[in-house]
Amino acid sequence: MKKLALATASPFSSFDQSAQVNVLDISPFLSEALIYDYHLLGAIGTSMDNPVNDIIHYWVEDTLNSDLLTLTISLSTSDTSVTFTASSAPHVGDYLISTGGGTNQEVMQVTAVNSTTNVSVSRGFNSTAASIASAGTVALMRFEQEGSDIGSDASVNPTVRSNYTGIIPGRDLQISGSQLARQMSTSAMQDQVAHQLQNRLLEWKRNFTRALLYSTLIGPGSDTSYRSFGGFRYWIRTASGQTESTAAALTIAHLNTVNKSIVDQGVYPDLLVCGTDLVGSINGFDSTNRRLLESDNKVGYFVNVITLGQGNDVKVVVDNRVNSGDAFLLTSDRIKPRPLNGRALITIAGQDWVDAKKRRILGEWGLEFRQPSVHAYVSNKS
Length: 382
Hints:
Blueprint: E1 21-25, H1 27-35, H2 40-44, E2 56-61, E3 68-70, E4 81-83, E5 95-98, E6 107-115, E7 118-122, E8 137-141, E9 159-164, E10 166-169, E11 173-176, H3 177-181, H4 187-190, H5 192-214, H6 232-238, E12 242-244, H7 252-263, E13 271-274, H8 279-283, E14 290-294, E15 301-307, E16 313-318, E17 327-330, E18 335-339, E19 346-350, E20 356-369, E21 376-378
């Protein structure tokens, strides 16, 4: 068969295919296998019914206007000029509410807008004036007068992100004619092709899980160069996700630090994924922050839910594909592994006129990782 070598830069590149090859879709077996997966893939699921249609796929993320202002100066109880960083466009009549706890709580009303980062306020509006430190935050509560007109445009342009699909292989197998002819005493071993394919499927799932965690975005790929999708760590580290990398024993304080940054955006993470090395640290969290489930394989209990300092419960998923010292705090409804249409999982049967049967397993998948800023990567922990 004549070889087709497509340009490396083409987004529609493909790989060569030999003659005498049969391809069979076995994606239903993957769906069935995931029912019994209690690790990462079982926790986030797959979008088998929502495939992508090209090797590069896009998604759109909307962003809301912030309702918080971060002060760049400190305020005494008598200061009436409030200077802050990025503007959330307060206008006359709005209330500013200090968010500090204890006695440092106050309601102020905006009386004049002097610039995009400075307003004049009436202090102690229906409350006692309080001191607020520089870098403190105040929340914006908006009100309008009767007969008010439409103000300036507050539309926020959406963020468009994209990812490639990656071709995830299982290891190939070749069963000789002699092996096929052997009479095995165990029924599960009698069909060596099916038996070995089952094991290669397990290896494929292991490889796919590790790719979701750690793969790096490279592409577009061709028959002379590889491509791969960006995984969790890639998106978190390159697109303003939350990170915490201090070398130390894992404590709930580390998780609360990144969790607060996410919750302040109005999103509540619900999944904590770690490796087996951090199970002991999580089991050592204060009993008021963890929910225990009796183990079915050894004496004792293990932690299956943690309540973080901002009030959200996160399910603990232990997966041995997570590197030592790593943990991922995730918002699961914003993670969607998506297959390329017709390529979720296939087996290729090669017949090259040898005294053997050849098989290969391939799956082609991308990853939709929405709003990296509401996910976190914690590393260097013990």
